[in-house]
Amino acid sequence: MANQQRNEAGFTLIEVLMAMAIFSLIGVASLKLAGTATQSAAQVAAKTEASIVAENALVDALLEPGTLTRGEEKRSVRNFEQTWQLRQSVETTGQANVLRIRIAATGQAPYAAAQAVGFKVLERQQ
């Protein structure tokens, strides 16, 4: 009986606990990474929407017939199922017939802000 050989297959309790701890750490790290990726995607989406709103407002200003009023103007627009605050600034440039138009769009979501800049060439009066 003293020379009895134990030939049992399987893992010890310590080995099972260590494996569970390692897999738990991997799971927690994966969840954290997924949360960060989701947050980053939401920020990129908000920034992209803000850029589109600013670009659309700039195109509207460039296509507007007549002369733009120099100075700053604030207004709001509805787009992407939210209200955006627009700040439009029209400035003169070094050339008398060229105006610089800056549009800043700010949304309700964090990181939902963008700016677009364009130039409008005015017809020369004779």
Description:
The protein has one helix and four strands. The protein has a single domain, classed as GSPII I/J protein-like (Pantoate--beta-alanine Ligase, Chain: A,domain 2, 2-Layer Sandwich), CATH 3.30.1300.30. It starts with 12 loop residues before the first helix and ends in a 5-residue tail after the last strand.
Summarize the structure.
The chain is an alpha+beta fold and 126 residues long. The protein has 1 helix and 4 strands.
Distance between the termini: 119 Å
Measured by DSSP, the beta-strand proportion falls in 25-35%
Under the CATH scheme, which architecture would be assigned? 2-Layer Sandwich
CATH topology call = Pantoate--beta-alanine Ligase, Chain: A,domain 2
What number of domains?
1
The sequence of SSEs as H and E is HEEEE
Task: Count up the helices.
Answer: 1
List low-pLDDT spans: none
Query: Which homologous superfamily in CATH is the superfamily?
Result: GSPII I/J protein-like
Short descriptors:
40% helix, 126 residues, Pantoate--beta-alanine Ligase, Chain: A,domain 2, four-stranded antiparallel β-sheet, alpha+beta
Write the SSE topology:
Layout: H1 13-63, E1 71-79, E2 82-92, E3 98-106, E4 113-121
Antiparallel strand pairs: 1-2, 2-3, 3-4
